Amino acid sequence: MAKMAKFNTWDWVALVLLIVGGLNWGLIGIFGFDLVAAIFGEMSFLSRLVYTLVGLSAVYIAIEAIRWGRTKEAVEA
Fold first, then answer.
1. Which PANTHER family match (predicted)?
2. Cα separation of 12 and 61, whole Å?
3. Rounded to an integer, what distance in angstroms lies between the CA atom of residue 31 and that of residue 33?
4. pLDDT tens digits, one per residue of 39-73
């Protein structure tokens, strides 16, 4: 059985932000409704901050996923 990677606090924060971002993009794609803009205002400082954090989370998780893949290879070898 494969070992699960242990998530630290940053991993969880990034994952939650990615889920929020993914759900927001789903709402935009299906209904044309931007939840972040509806809550924080269209392109307000807070909405831009949320969009920026979601983008940074995507970069962070992409880098971590590469690391997790390498860790899995090391465990299997």
1. MEMBRANE PROTEIN (PTHR37304:SF1), MEMBRANE PROTEIN-RELATED (PTHR37304)
2. 10
3. 5
4. 999 999 999 999 999 999 999 999 998 987 876 66
| Cα–Cα distance for residue pair 60/49, rounded to 1 Å | 16
Q: Which residues contact 25 (CB under 8 A, 6 or more apart)?
A: none
Q: Which residue has the tokens 């998530």?
A: 7
Question: Helix/strand/coil (H, E, C) string of 2-70?
Answer: CCCCCCCHHHHHHHHHHHHHHHHHHHHHHHCCCHHHHHHCCCCHHHHHHHHHHHHHHHHHHHHHHHHHH
pTM of structure? 0.77
Mean pLDDT of 17-31: 96
